[in-house]
TrEMBL record:
<keyword id="KW-0560">Oxidoreductase</keyword>
<comment type="similarity">
    <text>Belongs to the nitroreductase family.</text>
</comment>
<protein>
    <submittedName>
        <fullName>Nitroreductase family protein</fullName>
    </submittedName>
</protein>
<dbReference type="GO" id="GO:0016491">
    <property type="term" value="F:oxidoreductase activity"/>
</dbReference>
<dbReference type="InterPro" id="IPR029479">
    <property type="entry name" value="Nitroreductase"/>
</dbReference>
<dbReference type="Pfam" id="PF00881">
    <property type="entry name" value="Nitroreductase"/>
</dbReference>
<feature type="domain" description="Nitroreductase">
    <location>
        <begin position="15"/>
        <end position="191"/>
    </location>
</feature>
<dbReference type="InterPro" id="IPR000415">
    <property type="entry name" value="Nitroreductase-like"/>
</dbReference>
Length: 215
């Protein structure tokens, strides 16, 4: 019981201490292995029908970060952070259903017959949705994995900032991103040279309604 309480407190510490950091130590490097470890934690996030539509473009090379700088409206964290991770949503993630559910069979989570049924229904349903609806679903899932990535980074002592300020069309053109993928956000990842400032939050009473809305 004590161990469970301590683990819960550790999580709350991570959540409460996370800040959006915009000034990074340009000499601090995070290795590819460490980034992969963060991503392995991030992809445990939930997703619609477990289709895991997130894809990650990790930009670490100095020249590529310089190329990204004007696309991100010259926000300096792009070049100062150890890496910038472009979180993308795969609008055809349902085409991976066979692979995903086959792994579930191998892990003993479902039978082959159940897998076959799931794949058929999933591909049929998602394949018939209009592109705008597929995009909405994938962007929600992309937001879930992004938040999990930022919390995983903070738990490891790293800092992040989610970035919506960039030219999505130019990002796709410069980095060879096809129309199959919708940019969700950029996440700068590194070590703070200047701590992110605290921000005020509305009270729960101001944002929560019970059982019905009041208008």
């Amino acid at each position: 019981m004590t161990m469970q309480i301590e683990q819960k407190q550790d999580f709350l510490t991570v959540v409460k201490s996370r800040r959006s950091v915009r000034v990074y130590d340009p000499n601090f490097a995070i290795s590819k292995d460490e980034i992969n470890e963060l991503l392995r934690t991030a992809v445990l996030a939930p997703s619609s029908s477990n289709l895991q539509p997130w894809r990650f473009l990790v930009i670490q090379d100095a020249e590529r970060k310089q190329q990204l700088l004007p696309i991100a409206f010259n926000q300096q964290q792009v070049v100062e952070a150890s890496a910038v991770i472009a979180v993308l949503a795969d609008l055809k993630s349902y085409e991976k259903a066979e692979l995903i559910y086959d792994q579930a069979v191998k892990a003993g989570y479902m039978s082959e017959a159940t897998k076959t049924d799931f794949v058929s229904r999933t591909v049929g349903m998602y394949g018939s949705l209009p592109p705008a609806k597929l995009r909405d679903i994938a962007l929600v899932d992309g937001g879930l994995v992004s938040m999990q990535l930022m919390l995983a980074a903070k738990a490891k002592g790293y800092d992040t900032v989610p970035m919506g300020g960039y030219d999505a069309a130019k990002l796709k053109e410069a980095f060879g991103i096809s129309e199959q993928y919708a940019p969700v956000m950029l996440i700068a990842l590194g070590k703070a040279a200047k701590e992110g400032h605290p921000t005020a939050r509305m009270s729960v009473d101001d944002v929560t309604y019970w059982n019905h809305m009041n208008g």
